[in-house]
Model the fold of this input.
Amino acid sequence: MRIVVNHIPREIPAQSKVSDLLQFIAAQPPYAVAVNLLFIPKTKHSEHVLNENDQVEVIAPVTGG
Amino acid sequence: MTALLPLHSADSLVLYGEVFASRLLLGTSRYPSPQILENTIRIANPAMITASVRRQGSGPAVAESGFWQLLKKMAVPVLPNTAGCHSPQEVITTAQMAREVFETPWLKLELIGDDYTLQPDTLQLVQTAKHLIKDGFKVLPYCTEDLILCQRLVDVGCQAVMPWAAPIGTGQGPLNPYAMKLLRERLQVPLIVDAGLGLPSHACAVMEWGYDAVLLNTAVALATDPINMAQAFAQAVSAGRMAFLAGAMTAQDSAQASTPLIGTPFWHQA
Done:
């Protein structure tokens, strides 16, 4: 199925969970995740099932003012 | 290196019940190099340093991991921001992601209303702050110098507010001293000037008015010598605070001689 990760479309297996996606894109900790503008805590990464056209944000800490 | 002016131990900055020895908060962006950033933090000894969150992979991986290692090494409290958020939902989700990554309830609330001035969306700021406070965040809201806005932020639970002096990154210094002084007269919560300061004298001035702290980034990062500029700002903040506590004289319109007139030589009755 097609999802969008950090504004980039990707094809991933249907029924993938957030944890599967993070492994697929080789996300490096520390990170946090939101799906369709909603925060998914890390305790739910292995439970939350992704759907077609989900908009996923995987963020990391950076400098800021 | 000149020693920094010491803060009186009984005059610490208190935010949400936590005590901080410094009245300077420092941003971490736009420095020429990670090493300069690290040295600047060491010399400035800030109460907190701000940080942000961005899409993983949007910058060089080495920069992302380097900054994370620096945060761990410095052990200065981190204040994550919601920079770049344009809607309450973006703010709330970004805040929750930042809380998980940085493992802190502290939050610099930024809800941007205009991409050119980067001024806050004052119409949605209060409700957004209220939601975050309810969710357990220690919210430091970036706001304007509007008295009613700041009062409403306090009413919904913000224990400090952070009015701008001028638009972010402009270095212009306080553009509306009247309104900023009015805020100090009317509000009892800690006031932190956030955005628009450019010179140590700007920081000293707002501290003389009774403001509790300043938050700086561009003024230090884009200085020719960020490390020494950070030290200058730290000293200016301390000097301004000391002056405020010492109680400045009242400005007068007419001259008054400092030296006594009695006994002036060559003086005679006209």
Summary: The beta strands of chain A are 2-5, 8-11, 32-35, 38-40, 55-63.
